[in-house]
Design goal:
The longest helix is centred in the last third of the chain and has 27 residues, at 183-209. The radius of gyration is 23 Å and the shape is elongated. A 5-stranded antiparallel β-sheet has the order 5-4-3-2-8. Strands 1-9 form a two-stranded parallel sheet. A two-stranded antiparallel ribbon has the order 6-7. The two termini are 23 Å apart. It has helices at residues 8-29, 95-119, 132-153, 161-167, 183-209, 212-219; strands spanning 4-7, 34-35, 60-61, 65-72, 77-84, 126-127, 130-131, 180-181, 224-227. Helix 3 (132-153) runs antiparallel to helix 5. The chain has a single domain (4-33, 93-226), classed as Butyryl-CoA Dehydrogenase, subunit A, domain 3 (Up-down Bundle), CATH 1.20.140. It is of the alpha+beta class. Helix content is 49%, strand content 15%.
Amino acid sequence: MCHVIVTCRSMLWTLLSIVVAFAELIAFMSADWLIGKAKPVSSEDVDNRTGGSQEPYRPTLGIYGRCTRVSHMQFSRRDTLCGPYAENFNEIASGFWQATAIFLAMGIMILCTVAFVSVFTMCVQSIMKKSIFNVCGLLQGIAGLFLILGLILYPAGWGCQKAISYCGPYASAYKLGDCSLGWAFYTAIGGTVLTFICAVFSAQAEIATSSDKVQEEIEEGKNLICLL
Protein backbone atom coordinates (compact mmCIF):
# COMPACT_ATOMS: atom_id res chain seq x y z
CA MET A 1 0.00 0.00 0.00
CA CYS A 2 1.28 3.46 -0.92
CA HIS A 3 1.60 5.86 2.00
CA VAL A 4 1.84 9.53 1.10
CA ILE A 5 4.28 11.02 3.61
CA VAL A 6 4.83 14.77 3.62
CA THR A 7 7.06 16.44 6.19
CA CYS A 8 8.42 19.95 6.40
CA ARG A 9 12.00 18.76 5.86
CA SER A 10 11.22 16.42 2.97
CA MET A 11 9.14 19.05 1.19
CA LEU A 12 11.84 21.68 1.68
CA TRP A 13 14.44 19.27 0.26
CA THR A 14 12.23 18.55 -2.76
CA LEU A 15 11.62 22.24 -3.50
CA LEU A 16 15.29 23.09 -3.05
CA SER A 17 16.32 20.24 -5.37
CA ILE A 18 14.00 21.56 -8.09
CA VAL A 19 15.22 25.14 -7.65
CA VAL A 20 18.88 24.10 -7.85
CA ALA A 21 18.34 22.08 -11.02
CA PHE A 22 16.53 24.95 -12.76
CA ALA A 23 19.08 27.53 -11.59
CA GLU A 24 22.01 25.54 -12.98
CA LEU A 25 20.18 24.84 -16.24
CA ILE A 26 19.29 28.50 -16.79
CA ALA A 27 22.85 29.61 -15.97
CA PHE A 28 24.32 27.06 -18.38
CA MET A 29 22.08 28.20 -21.23
CA SER A 30 22.64 31.91 -20.59
CA ALA A 31 25.09 34.09 -22.52
CA ASP A 32 25.73 36.31 -19.49
CA TRP A 33 28.87 34.62 -18.16
CA LEU A 34 31.20 37.41 -19.29
CA ILE A 35 30.26 41.05 -19.80
CA GLY A 36 32.51 42.56 -22.46
CA LYS A 37 34.13 45.95 -22.58
CA ALA A 38 31.79 48.85 -23.31
CA LYS A 39 31.28 49.80 -26.93
CA PRO A 40 31.59 53.54 -27.69
CA VAL A 41 28.32 55.40 -28.13
CA SER A 42 27.63 56.35 -31.72
CA SER A 43 25.19 58.83 -33.17
CA GLU A 44 22.77 55.96 -33.77
CA ASP A 45 22.57 55.38 -30.04
CA VAL A 46 21.35 58.90 -29.25
CA ASP A 47 17.80 59.08 -27.96
CA ASN A 48 16.13 61.49 -30.38
CA ARG A 49 13.09 61.95 -28.15
CA THR A 50 14.97 63.17 -25.09
CA GLY A 51 18.14 64.43 -26.70
CA GLY A 52 20.21 62.32 -24.29
CA SER A 53 22.49 59.41 -25.01
CA GLN A 54 22.05 55.85 -23.94
CA GLU A 55 24.49 53.97 -21.75
CA PRO A 56 27.37 52.36 -23.69
CA TYR A 57 26.41 48.85 -24.72
CA ARG A 58 28.38 45.93 -23.28
CA PRO A 59 28.11 42.63 -25.20
CA THR A 60 27.97 39.38 -23.27
CA LEU A 61 29.61 36.02 -23.88
CA GLY A 62 28.63 32.61 -22.54
CA ILE A 63 30.12 29.15 -22.82
CA TYR A 64 28.61 28.59 -26.25
CA GLY A 65 26.38 31.66 -26.78
CA ARG A 66 26.69 35.42 -27.03
CA CYS A 67 24.65 38.61 -27.11
CA THR A 68 25.72 41.52 -29.28
CA ARG A 69 24.19 44.60 -30.85
CA VAL A 70 23.61 44.66 -34.59
CA SER A 71 22.85 47.68 -36.73
CA HIS A 72 19.90 48.06 -39.08
CA MET A 73 21.10 50.74 -41.46
CA GLN A 74 17.78 50.89 -43.24
CA PHE A 75 15.92 51.86 -40.08
CA SER A 76 18.81 53.63 -38.28
CA ARG A 77 18.39 51.57 -35.14
CA ARG A 78 20.18 48.84 -33.26
CA ASP A 79 18.86 45.55 -31.89
CA THR A 80 20.41 43.11 -29.45
CA LEU A 81 20.92 39.70 -31.02
CA CYS A 82 21.42 36.67 -28.77
CA GLY A 83 22.16 33.12 -29.83
CA PRO A 84 24.83 30.44 -30.01
CA TYR A 85 28.08 31.38 -31.71
CA ALA A 86 29.02 27.68 -31.94
CA GLU A 87 26.98 25.53 -34.31
CA ASN A 88 28.48 22.36 -32.87
CA PHE A 89 30.51 21.24 -29.87
CA ASN A 90 33.87 21.54 -31.67
CA GLU A 91 33.25 25.23 -32.40
CA ILE A 92 33.14 26.19 -28.71
CA ALA A 93 35.85 28.83 -28.34
CA SER A 94 38.18 27.02 -25.94
CA GLY A 95 39.08 23.46 -25.04
CA PHE A 96 38.66 24.48 -21.41
CA TRP A 97 35.13 25.70 -22.17
CA GLN A 98 34.40 22.41 -23.94
CA ALA A 99 35.44 20.59 -20.76
CA THR A 100 33.35 23.05 -18.73
CA ALA A 101 30.33 22.33 -20.92
CA ILE A 102 30.78 18.57 -20.44
CA PHE A 103 31.13 18.73 -16.65
CA LEU A 104 28.28 21.20 -16.22
CA ALA A 105 26.01 19.18 -18.52
CA MET A 106 26.73 15.99 -16.57
CA GLY A 107 26.05 17.73 -13.26
CA ILE A 108 22.84 19.32 -14.54
CA MET A 109 21.58 16.00 -15.94
CA ILE A 110 22.05 14.40 -12.52
CA LEU A 111 20.36 17.32 -10.76
CA CYS A 112 17.38 17.24 -13.14
CA THR A 113 17.03 13.49 -12.59
CA VAL A 114 17.11 13.94 -8.82
CA ALA A 115 14.60 16.82 -9.05
CA PHE A 116 12.24 14.57 -11.02
CA VAL A 117 12.63 11.66 -8.60
CA SER A 118 12.24 13.91 -5.55
CA VAL A 119 8.62 14.65 -6.50
CA PHE A 120 7.76 10.96 -6.07
CA THR A 121 9.46 10.57 -2.68
CA MET A 122 6.15 11.50 -1.07
CA CYS A 123 4.81 8.09 -2.16
CA VAL A 124 7.95 5.97 -2.44
CA GLN A 125 10.67 6.36 0.16
CA SER A 126 12.83 3.33 -0.66
CA ILE A 127 13.77 1.04 -3.53
CA MET A 128 15.32 -2.39 -2.93
CA LYS A 129 15.61 -1.49 0.77
CA LYS A 130 17.69 1.58 -0.11
CA SER A 131 16.47 4.99 0.98
CA ILE A 132 15.72 7.18 -2.04
CA PHE A 133 16.72 10.23 -0.02
CA ASN A 134 20.17 8.83 0.68
CA VAL A 135 20.68 7.76 -2.94
CA CYS A 136 19.56 11.16 -4.20
CA GLY A 137 21.81 12.90 -1.69
CA LEU A 138 24.78 10.88 -2.96
CA LEU A 139 23.92 11.77 -6.55
CA GLN A 140 23.65 15.45 -5.64
CA GLY A 141 27.10 15.28 -4.06
CA ILE A 142 28.50 13.76 -7.27
CA ALA A 143 26.73 16.43 -9.34
CA GLY A 144 28.26 19.11 -7.13
CA LEU A 145 31.75 17.74 -7.84
CA PHE A 146 31.10 17.89 -11.59
CA LEU A 147 29.89 21.48 -11.24
CA ILE A 148 33.00 22.46 -9.27
CA LEU A 149 35.28 20.98 -11.93
CA GLY A 150 33.42 22.87 -14.65
CA LEU A 151 33.59 26.18 -12.76
CA ILE A 152 37.31 25.75 -12.05
CA LEU A 153 38.11 25.05 -15.71
CA TYR A 154 35.97 27.89 -17.07
CA PRO A 155 38.32 30.81 -16.18
CA ALA A 156 41.22 28.93 -17.81
CA GLY A 157 39.55 29.63 -21.16
CA TRP A 158 39.56 33.40 -20.78
CA GLY A 159 42.70 33.57 -22.93
CA CYS A 160 40.99 32.17 -26.04
CA GLN A 161 40.61 34.40 -29.09
CA LYS A 162 36.85 34.70 -28.62
CA ALA A 163 37.23 35.99 -25.08
CA ILE A 164 40.03 38.38 -26.12
CA SER A 165 37.75 39.89 -28.78
CA TYR A 166 35.25 40.69 -26.02
CA CYS A 167 37.62 41.48 -23.13
CA GLY A 168 40.58 43.14 -24.84
CA PRO A 169 44.22 42.08 -25.36
CA TYR A 170 44.97 41.84 -21.65
CA ALA A 171 42.58 38.95 -21.12
CA SER A 172 44.24 35.61 -20.38
CA ALA A 173 43.68 32.49 -18.33
CA TYR A 174 42.13 33.51 -14.98
CA LYS A 175 42.47 37.20 -15.95
CA LEU A 176 39.35 39.03 -17.10
CA GLY A 177 40.99 41.96 -18.88
CA ASP A 178 38.29 44.55 -19.62
CA CYS A 179 35.44 42.12 -18.92
CA SER A 180 33.45 41.52 -15.77
CA LEU A 181 31.59 38.45 -14.57
CA GLY A 182 27.90 38.20 -15.39
CA TRP A 183 24.99 36.95 -13.33
CA ALA A 184 25.09 33.48 -14.93
CA PHE A 185 28.52 32.72 -13.44
CA TYR A 186 27.41 33.78 -9.97
CA THR A 187 24.18 31.81 -10.35
CA ALA A 188 26.19 28.71 -11.24
CA ILE A 189 28.36 29.18 -8.15
CA GLY A 190 25.32 29.73 -5.92
CA GLY A 191 23.63 26.67 -7.40
CA THR A 192 26.74 24.58 -6.72
CA VAL A 193 26.75 25.63 -3.06
CA LEU A 194 23.04 24.82 -2.78
CA THR A 195 23.68 21.45 -4.42
CA PHE A 196 25.90 20.40 -1.52
CA ILE A 197 23.37 21.82 0.95
CA CYS A 198 20.73 19.63 -0.72
CA ALA A 199 23.02 16.61 -0.46
CA VAL A 200 23.41 17.15 3.28
CA PHE A 201 19.76 18.02 3.82
CA SER A 202 18.62 14.79 2.12
CA ALA A 203 19.67 12.93 5.27
CA GLN A 204 17.34 15.13 7.33
CA ALA A 205 14.50 14.42 4.89
CA GLU A 206 15.12 10.68 5.28
CA ILE A 207 15.08 10.97 9.08
CA ALA A 208 11.84 12.96 9.00
CA THR A 209 9.99 10.45 6.82
CA SER A 210 11.13 7.42 8.85
CA SER A 211 10.57 8.85 12.32
CA ASP A 212 8.67 7.02 15.06
CA LYS A 213 5.73 9.40 14.71
CA VAL A 214 5.40 8.51 11.02
CA GLN A 215 5.51 4.79 11.84
CA GLU A 216 2.82 5.25 14.46
CA GLU A 217 0.48 6.90 11.96
CA ILE A 218 1.17 4.14 9.43
CA GLU A 219 0.23 1.54 12.04
CA GLU A 220 -3.00 3.47 12.67
CA GLY A 221 -3.91 2.85 9.03
CA LYS A 222 -3.45 6.38 7.70
CA ASN A 223 -2.55 6.70 4.03
CA LEU A 224 -1.91 10.45 4.05
CA ILE A 225 0.58 11.56 6.67
CA CYS A 226 1.49 15.23 7.04
CA LEU A 227 3.95 16.28 9.73
CA LEU A 228 5.64 19.59 10.45
